C-alpha cells in the first residue's frame, strides 16, 4: 500500500513538472499567438544587409528566369518551347539538365570573401527552389540532389563551412515548401490538402534535416502553395524555437502558408517590398540586381541590371524605414559569380566601409524622410546618454547661397551643442538654424578626390534635440 502511494505521488509530481515546463522554460506552443510572441534575435535587426543566392538546375539553361521548367512545361510559353527546339534534341527533359549542373568552378571561400567585402552581414542560399532539386545530399529526394547527380558534393555544407570559418557573416537557408512536379504534392493538391503525404514524407523531413545538419541562422521559406495547417508550420516552428540546435539564434520569415505580412519572425510580404514609411514589425526587402530574374540568365542585357546608385538608395530607404535589404545574385551553373554582380557588390562594400555607422545597428529616427529635402532619409544611433542622427542625401547638393553649396533640412531641431560632420570628411561643417525647426548646412568646398564616396552622402548630426 505504501509503495502504491509513493508511485502515485511520483506520477503526480512528474505530471506537475511536465505541466510547468512551458512556464519555466518559456516553451512555445504550436499556435500563431505563441509563435509570434517570440522576440526577434537582436543580431538580425542590427545586420541590415544580406546577400541572397539563387542557384540550382535552372542555372544550366539560364534562360529568361529561374521558373524555366514551369514556364516551358506547365505554362507552355512559346519562347521557352522555341529555345528548347533550337538548342536541344527532341525528347530532352528538364531532368537532363541536372548532370550539367557541375559547379566545377565553385569556390565557397571566394564567395564568402566577396560577400564579406560587400559589407553584408548574412547570406541566404537556395537549398531547394520550386523545381525540387536539393543543393545538399538529402535522404528524402533520391537522384534529385547535389550529392547524387551533378556536382556530387554538398553545396550547402561547403558554403556554410566557408562562411563560418572565414568571415563573421551568418548563414541562412532558403527552402521552397512545394515542388512543381512532385507527385506526392500534386496528389495532396488534388485532395484539397486534406491528405498530407508530401509534407509528412518530404518537406518537413527536409526542413529538419537542414536545421540539424547545417544549423542555419535564418530559415527563409517560400513557395507556400497551400495553407499553413497543411505545411504543419506552427508545429515545425514550435520545434525550431523549443528544441532545435538553433532555438536561441534562428530567425524566420513570414512565408508559411498564406501568412505573408501576418505571421513570422520578420515580414517579407512580397518580393521587392518597399513600404516607403516606418513599419512597426521588422521587415525585409528582398530584391534582385537583375531586374527580371532571380537566377542567372545568359540572355540578360546591361540595362537589365540595377546600377550601384539605385541599389545603395534602396538600402538607405529600407533601413530608414526599419527594414533589412536582402540583395540577390544568380551564379552560373559552374559556380561563378559574374563580374556584373561582383561590381555591384564591390560598390556596396566601398560605400558601407565609409558610411556603415549610419546603417549597421541603427534605429529608425522620429522622421524617415526630410520634409524639405525629399531625397534625404534619416537613421539614428541611440545609447543611454545621447542620440546621433544621420541625414543620408541621395542627391549631391546643388543649392547655392553666396557662392557656397548648402543643404537645408527641415526635420532636425538644433541646440547650442549641435555639431555637423560629413562622414568621411575630417572637419566640422558650419551651420545655422532655420526658424524653430530646421538647419542650413554649408557644404565643404571639395575637389573630386576629396569627396568621400559616391552614390549617397551622409551628414552626422550630434546634439540635435
From TrEMBL:
Gene3D superfamilies: Glycosidases (3.20.20.80), Golgi alpha-mannosidase II (2.60.40.1180). InterPro entries: FUC_metazoa-typ, Fucosidase_C, GH, Glyco_hydro_29, Glyco_hydro_29_CS, Glyco_hydro_29_N, Glyco_hydro_b. GO terms for biological process: fucose metabolic process; glycoside catabolic process. It is an enzyme of class 3 (hydrolase). One of its GO terms (molecular function) is alpha-L-fucosidase activity. It holds the Pfam family Alpha_L_fucos. Residues 1-26 form the signal peptide. Residues 368-461 form the Alpha-L-fucosidase C-terminal domain. The keyword Lipoprotein does not apply. SMART domains: Alpha_L_fucos. Its EC number is 3.2.1.51. It catalyses: a neolactoside IV(2)-alpha-Fuc-nLc4Cer(d18:1(4E)) + H2O = a neolactoside nLc4Cer(d18:1(4E)) + L-fucose; a neolactoside IV(2)-alpha-Fuc-nLc4Cer(d18:0) + H2O = a neolactoside nLc4Cer(d18:0) + L-fucose. Transmembrane segments: none annotated. GO terms for cellular component: lysosome. Residues 25-357 form the Glycoside hydrolase family 29 N-terminal domain. Keywords: Glycoprotein, Glycosidase, Hydrolase, Signal. PANTHER family: ALPHA-L-FUCOSIDASE (PTHR10030), ALPHA-L-FUCOSIDASE-RELATED (PTHR10030:SF37). Belongs to the glycosyl hydrolase 29 family. Alpha-L-fucosidase is responsible for hydrolyzing the alpha-1,6-linked fucose joined to the reducing-end N-acetylglucosamine of the carbohydrate moieties of glycoproteins. This is alpha-L-fucosidase. The lineage of its organism: Eukaryota, Metazoa, Spiralia, Lophotrochozoa, Annelida.
Amino acid at each position: 500500500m505504501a509503495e502504491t502511494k509513493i508511485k502515485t505521488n511520483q506520477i503526480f509530481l512528474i505530471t506537475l513538472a511536465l505541466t510547468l515546463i512551458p512556464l519555466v522554460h518559456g516553451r512555445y506552443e504550436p499556435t500563431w499567438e505563441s509563435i509570434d510572441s517570440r522576440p526577434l534575435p537582436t543580431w538580425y535587426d542590427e545586420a541590415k544587409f544580406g546577400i541572397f543566392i539563387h542557384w540550382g538546375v535552372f542555372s544550366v539553361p539560364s534562360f529568361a528566369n529561374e521558373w524555366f521548367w514551369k514556364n516551358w512545361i506547365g505554362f507552355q510559353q512559346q519562347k521557352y518551347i522555341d529555345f528548347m527546339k533550337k538548342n536541344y534534341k527532341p525528347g530532352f527533359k528538364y531532368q537532363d539538365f541536372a548532370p550539367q549542373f557541375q559547379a566545377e568552378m565553385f569556390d565557397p571561400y571566394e564567395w564568402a570573401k566577396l560577400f564579406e567585402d560587400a559589407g553584408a552581414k548574412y547570406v541566404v542560399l537556395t537549398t531547394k527552389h520550386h523545381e525540387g532539386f536539393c543543393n545538399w545530399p538529402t535522404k528524402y529526394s533520391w537522384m534529385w540532389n547535389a550529392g547524387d547527380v551533378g556536382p556530387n558534393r554538398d553545396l550547402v555544407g561547403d558554403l556554410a563551412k566557408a562562411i563560418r570559418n572565414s568571415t563573421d557573416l551568418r548563414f541562412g537557408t532558403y527552402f521552397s515548401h512545394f515542388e512543381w512536379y512532385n507527385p506526392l504534392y500534386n496528389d495532396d493538391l488534388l485532395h484539397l490538402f486534406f491528405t498530407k503525404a508530401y509534407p509528412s514524407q518530404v518537406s518537413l523531413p527536409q526542413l529538419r534535416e537542414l536545421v540539424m545538419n547545417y544549423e542555419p541562422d535564418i530559415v527563409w521559406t517560400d513557395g507556400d502553395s497551400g495553407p499553413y495547417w497543411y505545411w504543419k508550420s506552427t508545429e515545425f516552428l514550435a520545434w525550431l524555437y523549443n528544441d532545435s540546435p538553433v532555438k536561441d539564434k534562428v530567425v524566420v520569415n513570414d512565408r508559411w502558408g498564406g501568412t505573408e505580412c501576418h505571421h513570422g519572425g520578420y515580414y517579407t510580404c512580397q518580393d521587392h517590398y518597399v513600404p516607403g514609411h516606418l513599419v512597426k514589425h521588422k521587415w525585409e526587402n528582398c530584391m534582385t540586381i537583375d531586374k527580371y530574374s532571380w537566377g542567372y540568365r545568359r540572355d540578360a542585357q546591361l540595362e537589365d541590371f540595377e546600377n550601384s546608385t539605385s541599389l545603395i538608395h534602396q538600402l538607405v530607404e529600407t533601413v530608414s524605414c526599419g527594414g533589412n535589404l536582402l540583395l540577390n545574385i544568380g551564379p552560373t551553373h559552374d559556380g561563378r559569380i559574374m563580374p556584373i554582380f561582383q561590381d555591384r557588390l564591390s560598390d556596396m562594400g566601398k560605400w558601407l566601409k565609409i558610411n556603415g555607422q549610419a546603417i549597421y545597428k541603427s534605429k529608425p529616427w522620429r522622421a524617415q524622410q526630410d520634409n524639405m529635402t525629399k531625397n534625404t532619409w534619416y537613421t539614428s544611433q541611440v545609447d543611454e546618454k545621447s542620440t546621433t542622427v544621420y541625414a543620408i542625401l541621395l542627391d549631391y547638393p546643388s543649392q547655392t547661397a553666396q557662392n557656397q553649396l548648402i543643404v537645408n533640412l527641415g526635420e532636425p531641431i538644433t541646440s547650442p551643442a549641435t555639431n555637423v560632420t560629413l562622414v568621411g570628411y575630417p572637419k566640422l561643417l558650419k551651420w545655422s538654424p532655420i526658424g524653430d525647426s530646421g538647419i542650413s548646412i554649408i557644404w565643404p568646398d571639395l575637389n573630386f578626390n576629396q569627396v568621400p564616396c559616391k552614390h549617397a552622402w551622409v551628414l552626422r548630426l550630434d546634439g540635435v534635440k
